[in-house]
Amino acid sequence: MKKGFGLAAVLVIGFMLAACGNESANGDMTVVTIGVVGAVQDQWAAVNAQLYDEGIQVDLVFLNEWTMPNPALNDGELDLNAFQNRVFLENAMHTNGYELAIVGETFIAPQNIFNGRADIPADHTRTSLVDEVEDGFLVGIPNDLTNGGRALKLLEAAGLIDIDPEVGFLATEADIINFHVDIEIRAVEANTLPTLLPDFDIAVINNPQAMIHGLSANNESIFREDALNIEVAPNLINLIVARAGEENNPIFQRILEAYQTQAVIDVFENEFDGAFVPAW
Q: Do residues 210 and 275 touch, judged by C-beta distance below 8 A?
């Protein structure tokens, strides 16, 4: 496992236990650096609590942008990363030639539609937004290909648009074949959508970003993705990823085992307000 890495100037290390560095009070620890995006990472404390007596410690490396963890991992500056789903990973490998592999699955983070200026109450029994959304509404979505395409599919599920069925979850606005409501769609950086929400009538926001900014998926969203029941759900499960050839490393597999436990489910259920759904 790595003891340090060259991106220190732009990365922030998060130690999830009181012990810091590569030593603990009980002797040498095997430290595994995992690149993550977003501040909502409390589940890793439950993982570390299980691994401590085995001499394994996860140190989180917090990165600002979704474009950063894969090149950092590919270049050997991280041991693992844990921030992306299969669609994002496969697109990144195809586009950039990264040699990465899946260690295992973690959770699905359903996307939700939130109010901006629109007066639409939260009601998760509704199956469409056609009666609530008006012509001229400005709709915000993420501007990256995978999250933006997924957001367009959510707008389709809400009855607002139709997407070319051949495109799937990598749709762009050019793939919209019908508008059921005359909305204007504007794509911006995903992590800016919560703060820009007042500038939109409604916006599709990824749950981690929503939670960081105090938006409740359970109590405030007006339409949510039924992530576990859609036809491509396996492609939307978030992953722990290693460099190709290292995915079966016994320590990495032990971290996965510690993640896929009731202790982590308890964190999801008690602390994350419906933002994450266990998917292993």
A: yes
Strand 161-163 to strand 176-179: parallel, antiparallel, or no bridges (unpaired)?
Answer: antiparallel
Cα distance from N-terminal residue to C-terminal residue, the chain: 26
For the segment 101-116, the average pLDDT, to the nearest whole number, is 93
Alpha carbons 159 and 134: distance in angstroms, whole number: 12
pLDDT bracket for residue 1 (50, 70, 90): low
pTM for this one?
A: 0.72
Whether 236 and 153 have beta carbons less than 8 Å apart is answered as no
Buried b (16+ CB within 10 A) or exposed e, 59-96: bbbebeebebbbebbbeebbbbbbbbbbbbbebbbeee
Q: With 0-12 CB in 10 A as exposed, 13-18 as middle and 19+ as buried, what is 157? A: buried
Beta-carbon contacts of residue 106 (< 8 Å; ≥ 6 apart): 82, 237, 238, 239, 240, 259, 260, 278, 279, 280
